[in-house]
From TrEMBL:
BP-aspect Gene Ontology terms: sperm axoneme assembly
A single Gene Ontology CC term: cilium
Spans traversing the lipid bilayer: none
Source organism per UniProt: Dasyornis broadbenti (rufous bristle-bird)
Domain spans labelled CFAP47-like immunoglobulin-like: 77-217
Annotated protein name in UniProt: CFA47 protein
Pfam families (UniProt xref): Ig_CFAP47
Length: 247
């Protein structure tokens, strides 16, 4: 019952209030007809746009009684962001640390209620990795992991120093909490302080973000160079070698 003048705009507000951490899909359908109730003349030809034909409401005599615009809407619910996990290591040293991530409010597939503990690998050299939690049947619950950084330069730097291995996955069917236990290996070659997000998505929908703070402190002193003077106004020379870690 909304009347529109020619060239007039119509704003349609969309409100999304998810009660579960999953994907929601719907479609907004706009039905337009003439104010005076008359139909539009329309001729269906062999080369007519089939997509357009599906969005027309045709009468028995082939006239267009109404036009439909269909807008698919996909709502992705996101869990509240967790506190930052700090990974701290001295430059040119190697840190191995276990990090526990809890996915709260996981909604399983209709027939998949996995409850297993197995190991898998997350390769940070790739932009994303898909892992599965399965109960041994054909039904699986898949997760997609991705490390997001503020820039491609930071991501490339972290990927060369960082290794993440998924050691264990636990599913609590009562609380609907999936616990992911990672083994993080951090071996920075120079001091840094960079932030990243470990983003987890589930095939049933929903997104979890875990902030990670990587801190590499100043390295230990390599050596002490002593230069002994041979006399006043005379040069003393000491030679030493430097090895570059990159090209």
């Amino acid at each position: 019952g909304i009347r529109l003048d020619p060239k007039e705009k119509l704003d349609i507000p969309v409100l999304f209030m998810p009660d579960e951490i999953k994907a929601y899909k719907t479609a907004m359908v706009i039905h337009v007809m003439r104010e005076n109730g008359e139909n539009w003349p329309y001729e269906v030809t062999a080369d007519a746009n089939t997509e357009l034909n599906r969005n027309l409401i045709l009468t028995e005599n082939g006239e267009a009684q109404g036009i439909l615009w269909i807008y698919p809407i996909c709502g992705m619910s996101e869990a509240p962001q967790q506190k930052s996990v700090v990974i701290r290591c001295q430059a040119r040293q190697r840190l191995e640390q276990r990090v526990e991530m809890m996915l709260i409010g996981v909604v399983p597939a209709a027939s998949a209620l996995p409850d297993v503990r197995n190991s898998a690998m997350v390769d940070t050299d790739k932009s994303s990795t898909t892992q599965e939690v399965t109960d041994g049947s054909s039904e699986t619950l898949e997760f997609l992991y991705e490390l997001q950084c503020q820039s491609d330069e930071i991501k490339s730097q972290l990927e060369s120093w960082l290794g993440i291995q998924l050691l264990q996955k636990e599913w609590d069917t009562e609380s609907r909490i999936v616990t992911l236990i990672f083994n993080v290996v951090f071996a920075p070659s120079k001091p840094i302080r960079d932030e990243a997000l470990l983003v987890v998505q589930c095939t049933t929908g929903g997104m979890w973000k875990f902030p990670l703070l990587f801190i590499a402190t100043e390295p230990e002193v390599d050596d002490v160079i002593n230069i002994e003077a041979v006399g006043l106004n005379k040069e003393s020379i000491v030679g030493f070698k430097l090895t570059s870690q990159t090209r």
